[in-house]
Amino acid sequence: MNEIIETGQFSEKVFKIVVYAPRIARSRKPGHFIVLRTDENGERIPLTIADADVKKGTITLVVQKAGVSTTKLCNMKPGDKIADLVGPLGKATKIKKIGTVLACGGGVGIAPLLPIVEGFKKAGNRVISVLAGRSKELIILEDQIKKWSDEVIVMTDDGSYGHKGVVTVGAEEVIKREEVNECIVIGPTVMMKFTALLTKKYNIPTQASLNTVMVDGTGMCGACRVSVGGKTRFTCIDGPEFDAHQVDFDELILRLGGYKEEEKRAYNAYLENQNK
Amino acid sequence: MTDLSTSFFGLTLKNPVIAGSCSLTGNIDSIVELAKAKPGAIVLKSVFEEEIDLLYQKEQNSIYTQNLDPEYLNYFDYVIKEENLGKYLDLIQQAKKLVNVPIVASVSCITSNEWISYVKRFQDAGADAIELNLFIIPSDLKRTNEENERFYFESVRKVNEMVSIPVTLKVSYYFSNLAKMMKDLSSTGIAGITLFNRFYSPDINIEKEELTAGDVLSNSDEYLLPLRWTGILSSKVDCPIAATTGIHSAETAIKMILAGAGAVQIASTIYKEGPDVIGKIIKGIEEWMNRKSYKSIKDFKGKLAVHTEDITAYERVQFMKYFGNKDK
Amino acid sequence: MEDRKERRNQEWRKELRLKTKGKDRTSIPRAEMPMMDPLERVHYQDREVNTGLDLNTARQEATRCMDCVNPECVTGCPVNIDIPSFIKNIERGEILKAAGVLRETSALPAVCGRVCPQEKQCEAHCFYLKKLKKPAVAIGYLERFAADYEREHGVAEVPEIKKNGIKVAVVGSGPSSLSFAGSMVKKGYDVTVFEALHEIGGVLKYGIPEFRLPNDIVNSELENLEKLGVKFEKNFLVGRTSSFEDLKEEGFKGFYVASGAGLPRFMHIPGENFNGIMSSNEYLTRVNLMNAAKDEFDTPVFKGKRVVVVGGGNTAMDSVRTSKRLGADRSMIVYRRSMNEMPARLEEVKHAQDEGIEFNTLTNPIEYFADEKGHVSRVRVQKMELGEADVSGRRRPVPIEGSEYDIETDMVVVAVGVSPNPLVPSVLPDLKVSKRGTIEVNEETMQSSVPELFAGGDIVRGGATVILAMGDGRRAANGMDQYLTEKYGK
C-alpha cells in the first residue's frame, strides 16, 4: 500500500499526485515509469515518474483524466492509499553530453520530459525545449522546464499562449537556425509521429517515449508490443523510449484504439455509478 | 569530369560496380571494409530459407535442447527463425548507420510464403532495395515448368504488394523460354534483373572415387554466359539488367556495359584480391572512358547490344560463320 | 526418515498386502473422476471441472495398487515421491498420514495432483499399464484426494523451528519459489519472497485457470507458508525496486531466483499485431489475474465469438477453454501437428473436446487480416503433413503447397510457448546465462556462477512443469543450506 502525500491540479484534467514510495524514489532514473492499481478492482496502468524526492521517499506522477482508472486516481486525496504500485520499470533515458538537445513535449507528455530535460542539462548540453498544447491551460510545468533549458518555446494550437501552431512548427524553427544533435519527443502518439518525420528529414537522431496499452508492465504479456525497425519490441522492457525513425507509428496508433469500445463502456458505467 | 553514375535497384548509383551477395557482405566489419572502396552498392548476404532450417536442426540436435520440455520446444523453430532474422535486420541497420553506400537486402527462398513476408521487415530496418535471389534448379522429377514459372511470378507479385522500396530479381539461366520469361518478369514493375545466379557445382575425385565440390569462386571465362544474355535481352526487357559471374577486371565490366548492363555485381574477385579490386575496376572503367572520350555511362551502354528481332537465326548464322571460318 | 524399502517392510504394510488377494485387486476397475457436466461447466470460469473422489472410492482405488517390490511409478515421478507409501496409507484409511508422506517430497501436493501430466510420469510406469495392459492406478486422483482431505480436515501443526537468523531472499512467488521457501523456513532460515505482481503464486494464479486449479487451493498453501514464518512482499522487482546490492546491505545472505519463463513468444507472421490478437499470457493474465471477465473489475478483455487459439500445449487448452467460458460461439484450436503430438495433458484435451472445442490439427496460421478498424477478421491457415522425425522423435510438420484457406475469427490467442524472464540476467552481468536466456546452474546444488545466487524452475529449464520446478526448489534449499552453513556456520 502506498500512501498519497500530496495532490495538485495543473488544469481541468491534469493532476499531480505525490506518492510515498521510498525504494522507487531511490532507484529511479529519468525515463522510468511505474505501474499502479488504485484499488483491488482496478486496472494496472503505467505512469511515468515525473519527479522524485529521495529524502522524503516520494515520487511524483502527472496524470491526465481519460478513463475509469485515471479518473479514480485523480479523485484520490492525500492520506488515501494506492492498492499496488511497482517500479521502476522500463529502460532509463540514455543521457550523455552530445551538444544541443531539442526536447519536445506535448500536453501531459511534458511531465515525463521534465526529468529528461534536467538530466541532459546537468550533463552539460544546450537544451531547447518546445512545449505544445491545444491551449494555454494545457501547457504545464513551464517554469520547471525553464529552470533546465537554455530556451523554451511554447506552441498552442489556438494561439492563446506563446506562438500559434503545432509542435513541429516550433521545432523546425530551431532546427533551421542552429545545429541540433539529438531530439527527444514525448506526447500524443500522432504528435510524436509527425515530429519524427520532421527530424528524419534533417537526419537528427530522435528518441520517442511511447505510450501503449499495458497489462502487467513487467514483460509478461506482450500487450505493449511495437514494431521498431521491423522487429517486435516490448515497450515495458525494451522501452519506453525507442528510435523514433524506426517506430511503426501507424501500427501503434491502431493498437492504442484496441480497447476503445470497452473503455468507453466502462467509463460510462463508472460515471453512472458515481451519480447514484 | 567522367560521370560513372548509373541506374539500378531503382536507385542512382555512383558507379556500376556492385559488391554482390557473398559471405563478405554478411558481417558488419567486412561491409565497412568494402564500403571504403566505394562500390556503387552493397548487396547483403542472402538470407536462405534452408540455412535457417539447418540452424534449427543443429540446435535440435544439441544435448541442451533434447532435455527441454515438449511444450517449450513445440514452436521452437519460430524462435530460431526470428532470432536469425533479427540478426539480419540488425545488420541492415548497422550497415545503414556506418556506411554511405546503398544497402540492398537479399532473400532466397524456394517456398513462396512466409519468407516473402520478411521483405517488409527489411524495408522497416532501412534497406534501400530488395534483391530476390530466386532460383530453382530444375532437378525435381515431379515439378513442371509451369509450377516453376508460376513460383517466380507469384513471388514477385507478393513482394511488390508488400514493400514500397525497389525490388530486383537475381535469376538462374534454367529456362527453356529464357527470353520470354525475362521479358514478362521485367514488366511486373521490378527495378532490375541480375543475370545469373551461380550454383554450387559437384565434381568428382577419381582417385578417392568421391563426390567433391567444384570451385566456389568463379573463373574468368564464366562471364561469357551472362555477357551473351545481357547482349540479347538488354534492349528488349522493360527494366535495367545487371550482370554477374566471372567479372574479374575492368575490361569484363566494360564488356557487360557495352552489351547493355546498367551495372555489374562482383564477388569472387573480391575474395581473391581483396576489397581494393573494387577501386581498381572503377578506376579501370574511368580510364577507358577517358581514352574513348565517353563522358557518362549511358554514352556507351548497350552500344553492342543485339537489336536483331530474330536472335535465333542471327546466332545460328554467327555459329556457322565462326566454325565455317575455322575450317579454312 | 525410513527409506522406502524399510517402510514397505513395516508390519501394517505386510498385513495390508495379505488382506486382499492379487486378483481381487486387479479386478477392480479404475476409479472415474466425477466432473461437472460439460454443458454446464462452460459457463463458469471459476468452478473446478473435476470435483474429486470421495473417501470410499479413494480407498477402493488405493486397493488396486499392488505395492510392488520395485515400484516403477516412483522412478517415473520427477521428484521420486514414495507413491506406494502414500497410497497404502489411503487404503488403510490414514489419509492424513498419506498427506504427510506426500509433503516429505512435494511442497504443493494439491497442485500437483491436479496439474501433473501423470500419464507421462508416474502412471505411465504403473504395473497395470505395463504388464497387464489395463488402466494405471489413478495416482493423480489419489494425490489430489489426500491433499484436499488434509486441507479440509487436517490441523496444520506448526512444527518447532529453531531459527538461525540468516536472511534469504526469493525472487518470484511461483511453485519453485514456494517449494524453496517451505524447505528453507523449516531449516530455520528467515525467508522473504519477493513478487513483481500484486498477487502471490506466479503461474499458479495468473496462468492456470480456476476451473483447473482454484485460487483457494493456492491461497491455502500460501497461508501454511505464512504460518511457518515465510514473509511475502508484493509489487517488488528484485533488481529494479532494489538491486541485489541493496538487498545484501539489508542483510540478505542468499538468493534464490525463480522468476520463471513468462516472456511471451509470437510467431512474427504478417498481421500478428492487429487488435484482437494477443499472447496466451496476456489473455490469461487479464482473465485470471485481473478478473477482466467480471464487470465489477476494471480491466477489459475482448470476448470473442469466433476464437482461434494457436498451439497445442496446456496453455493453449487453458486459453481456448477460457474463451468458451467467456461466451464464444466457436472456440477453435489450430495446431500444426496431429492430436498425438499435442504436449497438453490428456485430461485437458479430453475435457476440451467434451466442452465443444473444435480441434483443427495439421493446420498452421500464415497470415492475419483485419477489418477497417484494424481488428482481426480472418486468419489464413495452411494444411500440414507430418514428415520425417527429428532427433527428439517428433515428426516435422511440412506445409502442403496450395492448401491455404481462411478461418473467420474475431479473436486470436497465440499460445506457442514462452521464454525466460530477462530481468535478473540483465541486472547481473556476472551471472552465467545460456544463449537462450536460462540461468546456468550446478544440477545437484542449483548454484549459479554467482556463489550466493541459486536458481531453479523455468528460469533454468525454459518452460517446464510445476513438479520439476518444485523439485528444483527443494534441491536448491539443500544446496543453499550447505553453502550458507559452510560460509556462516549456524
Key structural traits:
heterotrimer; B: 328 residues; TIM Barrel; eight-stranded parallel beta barrel; 13 strands; 46% helix; C: Fumarate Reductase Iron-sulfur Protein, Chain B, domain 2; FAD/NAD(P)-binding domain; 3 domains; 21 helices; 16 strands; 37% helix
Plain-language structure description:
The complex is a heterotrimer of chains A (276), B (328) and C (490). By secondary structure, chain A is α/β, with parallel strands linked by helices. Chain A has 2 domains: 2-89, Translation factors (Elongation Factor Tu (Ef-tu), domain 3, Beta Barrel), CATH 2.40.30.10; 100-256, Rossmann fold. Helices cover 29% and strands 32% of the residues of chain A. Chain A has 8 helices and 16 strands. Chain A is globular. The mean pLDDT of chain A is 94. In chain B, helix 5 packs parallel to helix 6 (114-125) and helix 9 (224-233) runs parallel beside helix 10. Helix content of chain B is 46%, strand content 15%. The longest helix of chain B has 23 residues, at 76-98. In chain B, helix 10 links the parallel strand 12 (241-244) and strand 13 (263-266). Chain B is built from 13 helices and 13 strands. Chain B starts with 5 loop residues before the first strand and ends with a helix. In chain C, 37% of the residues lie in helices and 16% in strands. Chain C has 21 helices and 16 strands. In chain C, the strands form 4 sheets. A 5-stranded parallel sheet of chain C has the order 3-2-1-4-16. In chain C, helix 5 packs across helix 7 (83-91), helix 5 packs antiparallel against helix 11 and helix 8 (95-105) packs across helix 11 (139-153). Chain C is globular. Chains in contact: A-B, A-C, B-C. At the A-C interface, helix 1, strand 7, helix 7 and helix 8 of A face strand 5 and helix 16 of C.
